[in-house]
Amino acid sequence: MSWEAVTKKDFQDSIRSYWLWGLSVLFIVFFGVPAYFFADRVGSAAQQQGQQLSTDAFLNILAEVNAFFVPVIAIVIAYAAIAGERDSGTLKLLLSLPHSRLDVVVGKVLGRGAVVALPVLVGFVVAGGIFLVTPVEFGYANYALFALLTALLGVTYVAIAIGFSAAADSARRAMIGTVGIYVLFTLLWNRFASGLINLLSEYADLGGESLVSIHLLVKVLNPSQAYKSLTLRLVTDTAAQARVSLIGGGGLQGQLNRQMYAQALGDSVPFYLSDMAVVVFMLAWLVILPAAGYYVFDQADL
Amino acid sequence: MTAIELRNVAKHYGDVVALANLDLEIDEGEVFGFLGPNGAGKSTTINLLLDFVRPTVGSVQVLGHDAHEESVAVRRRTGVLPEAFGVYERLTGTEHIEFAMESKDAETNPANVLDRVGLSSSDAERKAGEYSKGMRQRLALGMALIGEPDLLILDEPSTGLDPNGAREMREIVREENARGATVFFSSHILGQVEAVCDRVGILRDGELVAQDSVEGLRDAVGTESTLRISVDSVNEAIVDEVRALDGVSVVDVVEKTVEVTCSDDAKTAVLSTLEDGGMAVSDFETEEASLEDLFAAYTREDEPTEVDA
């Protein structure tokens, strides 16, 4: 398959551009430094009080930050992957060789995906090394799953950005598109979800349980929130807890909201809120925008 | 066998007609020169062959494959030097060649390929971002040669090359043709194609205005000459009458000079038509038309030119 050649060349190019090294250093610092302070300060403080602190607590703190930060890195890495080649004319060189436009999209998702995923994993390995030499209890399985989910979050946003990059006829437009969807997913989605539920509760004849389920469904359809909920699931007892935790709001009001949602939901969640469903939603984003971007790209006169 | 076949092809960009009713057939083993001024539609035609753009109407076949439906199959057997391309700034010359080899499943020694197109071993290890325009052109030609393609499509291959480089380029075209490859290349300069082409097509404003062997064109030129006639006034209606005369191929008016390219037999008729129409001839000179003149006449940008090919 010829996407392999595209992936390899793209990856090679990223090594030359120092992105791979730069990002590795960035993630080592980004995960390693907090890991060190967490282990040193929080760990010893907890031990003095006779508690055993595990890496799970560290991951909880990190999940929230990652959901903002990792997509930004992924977008920066990927938004120009195809549109930038269109701007510079290298796309002509690429498509003069026997690659289909589908090969280009697939090859770029994999190549740039690796450029984001590998440094994320390297960062986690280094941070894990720090935990090994400190008294913090190391939850290996959760730690590894968390690292993989974070890498998946990165690759998902790479795929989203590649979708825009394939569809756009210039890198500038691709950037506008990806920044737009980042803002939508990270800053506006909760408002969108709440607005939708308000509308539904006003105009549709739905019971409280349905409304709660629909609200949570809309939330986990967002890949960033799917990531948050799945990482939380590593430490919660039930899927319901991990889903309800997406209901925001600080203080007492937030707590009340979450209690209300938890009660409405009960112990079990509908199939579309199960862990498997949320994983599927997240994986779907790997395909949806690249497919749409490919569709536009394939029709385009270059 | 036919290597390239365009049937009734038109390409519109919105209201702009880039190509109109293009019919073109190029046989296997042929070296075909595709001539025309910038903007005539040469690159559009090449982009159609490579499926970079799709025809508004008509069918495009390359090496027996539909250019759109089976584009990858076409490009597997085709080497391309595209126009206005970019190189991967951070990859070396060798890495470019290796990418082409991997893409085409071809085994060869990159150093030999680069040497053949005139890039030294020290150039090979430099990043292509540091290459001059001419070196980039050589690099892309090297990539095009990978895998002994059955068809070479070269879009303005001499761009950025000095005369020596252009000569080396023609030498490679000859070698590839001798190996059995069909070569289709475009240029806006006649001199670059006449020495190496079996046949040329001349494109103007999206239409093929001439298609002939170089010898054929030369023969046409040999029997024609250009009359440069000074007149006291210009009457467009009379000029049109001259255009309509048998044996007249091109008429061009520059201020009070009428330039007529016509067969030798038609000269008298041209002069008498002008005189009879009241355009008094004050002076005239005759010049044997060269191939260059003919090409210039075919492709001149200004309007009052009519071509009977």
Q: Radius of gyration of chain A over alpha carbons?
A: 21 Å
Mean pLDDT over the full residue set of chain A:
90
Structural class of chain A: mainly alpha
What is the class of the largest domain in chain B in the CATH system?
Alpha Beta
Give me the CATH fold name of the largest domain in chain B.
Answer: Rossmann fold
**With helices defined by DSSP (H or I, 4 residues minimum), what is the helix count of chain B?**
12
Distance between the termini of chain B: 26 Å
- Please identify which CATH superfamily of the largest domain in chain B we are dealing with: P-loop containing nucleotide triphosphate hydrolases
General form of chain A = flat
Indicate the low-confidence ranges of chain B by residue numbers: 302-309
Shape of chain B from CA axes?
elongated
- Count all strands of chain B and give the number: 14
Let me know the number of strands of chain A. Answer: 0
Major protein interface: A-B, 23 and 33 residues
CATH architecture of the largest domain in chain B: 3-Layer(aba) Sandwich
Order of helices and strands of chain B: EEEHEEHEHHHHEHEHEEHEHEEHEH
Gyration radius of chain B, to the nearest Å?
22 Å
The neighbouring-strand order within the major sheet of chain B is: 6-7-8-3-9-10
Mind describing the biggest β-sheet of chain A? none
Q: How would you name the oligomeric state of the polypeptide chains in this document?
A: heterodimer
Q: How helix-rich are the residues of chain B, as a percent range?
A: 25-40%
Description:
Chain A has 302 residues and is mainly α. Chain A contains 13 helices and no strands. In chain A, α1 packs across α6, α6 packs antiparallel against α13 and α10 packs antiparallel against α13. Chain A starts with a helix and ends with a helix. Chain B has 309 residues and is of the alpha/beta class. Chain B has two domains: 218 residues, 3-Layer(aba) Sandwich (Rossmann fold); 65 residues, 2-Layer Sandwich (Alpha-Beta Plaits). Helix content of chain B is 35%, strand content 31%. Chain B has twelve helices and 14 strands. Chain B has a six-stranded mixed β-sheet with strand order 6-7-8-3-9-10, sandwiched between helices. A four-stranded antiparallel β-sheet of chain B has the order 2-1-4-5. In chain B, strands 12-13-11-14 form a four-stranded antiparallel β-sheet, sandwiched between helices. In chain B, α3 packs parallel to α6. Chain B is elongated. The two termini of chain B are 26 Å apart. The C terminus of chain B is likely disordered.
